[in-house]
Amino acid sequence: MIQTLEWTEDGVRFIDQTKLPTEEVYVTCTTHEEVADVIRNMVVRGAPAIGVAAAMGIALGVNNSSAQSTGELKRDLDQICGVIGKTRPTAVNLFWAIQRMQEKFEQVHTRPVQQIKQELTEEAKRMHAEDIAANQAMGRHGATLMPSSGGVLTHCNAGALATAGYGTALGVIRAAIEQGKKIHVYADETRPFLQGSRLTAWELMKDGIPTTVISDNMAGAMMKQGKIGAIVVGADRIAANGDVANKIGTYTVAILAKEHGIPFYVAAPISTVDLACADGAGIPIEERNAREVTHIGGKQMVPNGVSVANPAFDVTPAKYVAAIITERGIARAPYDDSLRELAGQNAEVRR
Ligand code: MRU
Questions:
Q1: Mean pLDDT of 53-62
Q2: pTM for the complete prediction?
């Protein structure tokens, strides 16, 4: 399995996703500031991978702390979480991971400082293992929804590289293929960062899964020609009503799917569901550097001085989502009820 990120004796090791698909190189971070940088610069990206990276970054920071007392360690922990929490705003997994590490600290705060550090390290490693298990469970549930043969379209990269391993949307496709389904993946290239053509195609090729890369503006034509039997994408944050924030362009794909009568599925772990967010309007959308749009492979593609927009995500209204596949089962509309039931909690709704 591709090692997207892992805890090693030397630090947290990441495959550098900015260099794929032409170079397979790794970077090792030894401080939480370095982990914050690799999240911000998208060396590691994808909501679940960001969550696990955040937890490991926090564990690194805590291990580096010179605190002599629990109070001092708590002050350092809060400062570390503050740095990690300012990296990327949309993927709720980042904040879920920070909260989980804070809760772990509360559980073990009466122990000696050295032991607290050890417990937080173990918690981060546990989150890594749990993410892989969640993706495999998601795959088992979601595979039942995949066609027995034919094309399945995906957008961005919701694969092993976007998670601790196996993937969410690509996990569903992997599981369907493991069950004998004859699926051919259509991977949207996903402008501007090209996660589809660079990352999805790379990891599917490694697994020998038949894949065709298309530019984003070809998706409608492929659907019209009957080449796409289902669509499955990941998510960065899912509101309580089932509105889904995912990579920019996902909304367009969902509308096209509706027009062509193709089921549009979302695969995401429960940690991506934000019950405190009533609907998609409350999801913060990251605006990234204009250079991602203006330049391709270092070459300028727009005239000097032109205005450029670069929202990294969009929100697909729940009415376009045929089902949300989670590790705990499949949620269907009305999502207010089904998501709350799967998440198994009554969070206060923020409006
Ligand atoms: O900007 P990115 O590459 O972090 O965006 C990633 C996506 O939008 C993914 O589809 C999403 O995080 C789900 S990953 C399992």
A1: 98
A2: 0.96
